[in-house]
């Protein structure tokens, strides 16, 4: 985010006086390469679901929503690198009106990626909950049309929230609201998890174990959620520390890892498609068929 980076640079000289931790600087080629791979992988997920009617179900619609979020996160870094390259070549006026507008658009993609990931993981958790404990009524409750309507509402809200956050990003209440979404999403999913496992335990005592396919989906969600937390939590913590203790030596030492946290975010987009393919035999077979057909057509 431009506003976060500018704030980081403005306080960096003060923080450096109180900390012995030099900033960790990574080559832009690393960000660019990881971003390209992330875009291509998630684009392949989308194309696979679009081309295979067997995969056009609510569960895969929600997975596609998460793939779009990951792709936007990767696309953000690609566009940012292109803007930096044009500015260094003299095609863009530094701090000019076009660059400022372009930065706001790119920042909106970044925020949209995070908000989209949070909402997509939450709706996947709700879908898994209904799949496990309302299996007989699942297809009446979660229809493809309802799933698409839910996703349209989610992405409309995410776009509006993203524009608002970027517009008012210099205000502390905006930062607090932005970072609060992360623990709120975790609390929602953990509540579903707790209820799921308590009901699963009770169900297993009364009857047999739950269907393996349903539990496989819950495990997949657990892995996706774990990767998301691991990749995004350091950045969210960075924003909080930068807002509330920018000059503290311990905070400054952590903030020296800003670019490392950025790489973790980019890696999230690369890892998720492997999780889909590893955990879903249907999607894995569709990947293979699409790759095979494209190779020999």
Q: Tell me how many strands there are.
A: 0
Structure classification: mainly alpha
Basic shape: globular
Strand content: under 5%
Total helices: the number is 11
Instruction: Describe the sheet with the most strands.
Output: none
Q: What's the short story on this structure?
A:
The chain has 297 residues and is an all-alpha fold.
Which helices and strands occur, and which strands form pairs?
Elements: H1 2-18, H2 28-51, H3 58-88, H4 97-133, H5 138-141, H6 144-167, H7 172-206, H8 212-244, H9 249-255, H10 258-279, H11 281-296
Helix pairs in contact: 1-9, 2-3, 2-10, 2-11, 3-4, 3-6, 3-10, 4-6, 4-7, 4-8, 7-8, 8-10, 10-11
Describe the structure.
- With 297 residues, the chain is mostly helical.
- It starts with a helix and ends with a helix.
- α2 crosses α11 and α7 (172-206) packs antiparallel against α8 (212-244).
- Mean pLDDT is 79; it is low at 1-16.
- The protein is globular.
- The protein has 11 helices and no strands.
- It is found in: Cell membrane.
